[in-house]
TrEMBL record:
High-level lineage: Bacteria, Bacillati, Actinomycetota, Actinomycetes, Mycobacteriales
Protein name: GNAT family acetyltransferase
TM helices/strands, residue ranges: none
PANTHER family: ACETYLTRANSFERASE, ACETYLTRANSFERASE YPEA
The UniProt record lists the keyword Cell cycle: no
Pfam families for this protein: Acetyltransf_1 (PF00583)
Length: 159
């Protein structure tokens, strides 16, 4: 397994996993991923597995930095693990990287998650996220509700 920053050539595989993992929630296309990767204030990482001669992307995550560089906030845009590789610590590995980046800027982190997504909610709570409320019909076309969750900055957690 190798973890590294995602590039345009990885966008098609991300879109393929997205179709599998978020079929009713407007899965992102290859083009959307490519734009996200090229944005100057996003941070996208992938986990690659060696499958024979081939390296296959099996998990990815991305986060955006918002606001002024000396006092930024962060927003997790996506995190996903190939169903065949779930529950092996890859989600945690990617979250560790994202939270390390946010903590290095002492930033608060926000995200949305489907209210029925118990595995993801458990993972976020394990990383110190707390529920801030519900956004009705947030996901389309499914109409599923989302929780907004946030994680205090490092200095806020240490108070
Ligand atoms: C959520 C997701 C990214 C977790 O990735 P993963 O690699 O399977 O998770 P890990 O093995 O690293 O587990 C990390 C923690 O997540 C939680 N978790 C993961 N899967 C879980 C499950 N099926 N049930 C309950 N908790 C679960 C646990 O707290 C776990 O910690 P533990 O192993 O100490 O119990 C993965 O389930 C996934 O890709 N889901 C589909 C996409 C998705 O919903 N993304 C989030 C959108 S907001």
């Amino acid at each position: 397994m190798e973890i590294r920053a995602l590039q345009t050539r990885d966008a098609a595989r991300c879109a393929e996993l997205e179709q599998i993992l978020f079929p009713g929630d407007n899965p992102w296309s290859r083009d959307i991923f490519a734009i996200e990767f090229s944005h100057p204030h996003t941070f996208y990482l992938g986990v690659f597995d060696d499958e024979g001669d081939e390296e296959v992307l099996v998990a990815y995550a991305g986060m955006a930095m918002l606001g002024p560089r000396d006092d930024p906030e962060f927003e997790i845009h996506t995190i996903a693990v190939d169903p065949e590789h779930q529950r092996r610590g890859l989600g945690r590995l990617l979250m560790d990287q994202l939270m390390h980046a946010a903590d290095s800027f002492d930033g608060q982190v926000f995200l949305e998650v489907r209210t029925d997504n118990a595995p993801a909610i458990a993972m976020y709570e394990a990383f110190g996220f707390v529920n801030q409320g519900v956004r009705r019909n947030y996901y389309q076309p499914s109409g599923a509700d989302a929780y907004t969750m946030s994680r205090p900055s490092r200095s806020e957690r240490e108070q």
